[in-house]
Amino acid sequence: MDQPQTQDGAIDASIEVSEKAPVDRRDFAVLTGASLSAPVLAWMFDLGPFQAALHGRRVTTAMVEHIEQVTQNIRDLDDETGGGDLLEMANTNLQFTTRLLKHGSYTTVVGASLFSATAELCRLAGWLAFDCNRQAAAQAYWLAGLRLAHSAEDRALGGVILSWMSHQAAVTNNPTDALQVAQAAQAGSKGAVSTRDTIVITIRAARAQAQLGEHKALSHMLNEALALLDRADRDDKSYSYWMDAAHLSENVGLCFLDAGRPQQAVKHLTQSIDIDKTYARDYSGHLLGLAKAYIRQGELEQACTLGTQTFSLLLGQINSPRIMRQFRDFQRELAPHDVPCVREFTERARELL
């Protein structure tokens, strides 16, 4: 946070987070309120031109493309298995790219690409940390990525990083922060992001409105997100490549769940699990969301059935501490209901865990 809003400041911030975030949790605290506003606002405005090219080894376009391919490989592994085993890999690649930024030399064009590639590594590392329940480290990665995206003048990636920061604020029960950050993403990346990215940013704002009880604004944003889906297939490039009908239905369902409307949540979450079973971790999240909606409707047998399906996936296919935490939350919400199906499910889960 003390680094200047320059290329050197962005590089030093990303070096600091890549060296400290995985090993020393005490160095980072989750920011809220006014403390979170400062880096968000700094990203939205141009605080100076690029500095002169750094001296050192020449960085080529081919090298940047290689970094991008490695990042894509880590993303693919994460999609299939969860982030539990991948954070260290992403962080090692982040350390390498920040050394290139610090000590290499490059043209303005190549430099912008390298800054964007490093920002995307920060975004990915933040997501992996988030999936590992490392909330402060996740936010630190994203803040560093935001600075790098600013230096690259990559408004699209900056907006996507802000969307993940908004999501984090929502799931950690800070809806005011979530809405502020989502609105900053909407304003700062307008006209730069793809349709899928726009959907994600819109749905982040919608979830914050749901948690704040702003039902009229929630309905407006959900309708806007749903209307955009038909145009998503025309995207040439999207950081939110995963946003499809299934993920949108899930997110709409979670918004209704947060708004205290479980019947509508069940409708959309049912659609999400019917559409997509491609990735085990995402599918597990869909199942747990629907299971919680069933609990809140009093349909406990359906909830236990979905809980059992999720548990099988957690044991055999994925490594995602975040999904395991959601499973524990589901267990706690189910526990007060003293009926046979709940007792049987609870005992079975206790044995296997």
- Give the overall form: globular
Number of helices: 16
The overall pLDDT average reads: 85
Percentage of residues in helical conformation:
over 70%
Distance between the termini: 41 Å
CATH topology-level name: Serine Threonine Protein Phosphatase 5, Tetratricopeptide repeat
Tally of domains: 1
DSSP strand content: under 5%
Task: Please give a structural write-up.
With 353 residues, the protein is mostly helical. The chain has one domain (7-283): Serine Threonine Protein Phosphatase 5, Tetratricopeptide repeat (Alpha Horseshoe), CATH 1.25.40.10. 73% of the residues lie in helices and 1% in strands. The chain is built from 16 helices and 2 strands. The chain has a two-stranded parallel ribbon with strand order 1-2. The protein is globular, with a radius of gyration of 21 Å.
Give structural attributes.
single chain; 353 residues; mainly alpha; Serine Threonine Protein Phosphatase 5, Tetratricopeptide repeat; two-stranded parallel sheet; 2 strands; globular
Provide the fold topology.
Elements: H1 7-20, H2 33-44, E1 57-58, H3 61-81, H4 87-103, E2 104-105, H5 108-131, H6 135-151, H7 155-171, H8 175-189, H9 195-212, H10 215-228, H11 245-258, H12 262-275, H13 280-297, H14 300-316, H15 321-334, H16 340-352
Parallel strand pairs: 1-2
